[in-house]
């Protein structure tokens, strides 16, 4: 009897699956904390970037207790450069809840996970799958591409469109390996351009391959992002220090540090030096203005810090882009 698609993929994974510091092959990961941290880091960040951050993080905060007892600034500094800092703040908050309510353990039920700070449906499924080997279906960009090609779907798609098709193939007994396998297939074989179909365990069943339309799939529905503009002030004193301030405790980039800036309706027609950063829901362009020292009076809560000491302040990626231009 020919092997079904799920078994074909699992066999391929046993031979070809990637090694990652947060992954074990052949079942559940013994450390659910490692799974949780890696899953949050991997949101909106590539595997290559996450590897070093993950290793450093696990040394600095080896378990949930160490993380819950750490200072928020320490946590934000460990996260610096990964962007989307709400993730780090929520991890810290979540660690405290885990200590208080779950004796420092990560629950193995999806419904319990969903009640925790910073854990949404995707992360809850991933934790159930990778840490507890449950048959959860995980749909990320790689999975969408592979399934859409396998089934030859040429229309525009979203993750919920793909979910039932991905669910049909999910292994009932090897949830963790199956989810890793389909993600690896997308990342290493069924790549966005030049997919290596000759190496693919699903080549015989793949409709896109049969029709030669692999690269036209998937058509993913894109949301258009709103544009915002700002003017950022680089103010230096006679000692070479710059004026920086801490952002509010709530909202965008909360508790992180920045050069003072304000939102403006449009950029100056003079085409000043600028940095661009894309947030989840909007794109921000900040023009950079060297302002005289007197301008500091407009920002009474800001402080003077020398560039050699910037390493002690967690800056968001947006501001790191500015620092590179100094
Ligand atoms: S045969 Fe090619 S297009 Fe189809 S799933 Fe495999 S790698 Fe992707």
Instruction: Identify the CATH architecture of the largest domain.
Output: Orthogonal Bundle
**CATH C-level label of the largest domain:** Mainly Alpha
Q: What share of the residues lie within helices?
A: 40-55%
* CATH fold-level topology of the largest domain: Endonuclease III, domain 1
Set down the secondary structure blueprint:
Blueprint: H1 5-16, H2 32-42, H3 47-60, H4 64-69, H5 72-79, H6 86-102, H7 110-114, H8 121-132, H9 141-150, E1 156-157, H10 159-169, H11 175-189, H12 207-211, E2 219-220, E3 226-235, E4 242-246, E5 257-258, E6 261-264, E7 274-278, E8 282-291, E9 303-305, H13 317-324
Parallel strand pairs: 1-2, 3-8
Antiparallel strand pairs: 3-6, 4-5, 4-9, 7-8
Helix pairs in contact: 1-11, 2-3, 2-8, 8-11, 9-10, 9-11
The structure holds iron/sulfur cluster (SF4).
Protein architecture, described:
By secondary structure, this protein is an alpha/beta fold. The protein has three domains: 1-15 and 136-222, Orthogonal Bundle (Endonuclease Iii, domain 2), CATH 1.10.1670.10; 28-132, Endonuclease III, domain 1 (Orthogonal Bundle); 226-324, Nucleoside Triphosphate Pyrophosphohydrolase. Helices cover 41% and strands 13% of the residues. Strands 6-3-8-7 form a four-stranded mixed β-sheet, covered by helices on one side. Strands 5-4-9 form a three-stranded antiparallel β-sheet, with no helix packed on it. Bound molecules: iron/sulfur cluster. Iron/sulfur cluster binds at residues 146, 149-150, 189-190, 195, 197, 200, 202-203, 206, 208-209, 214.
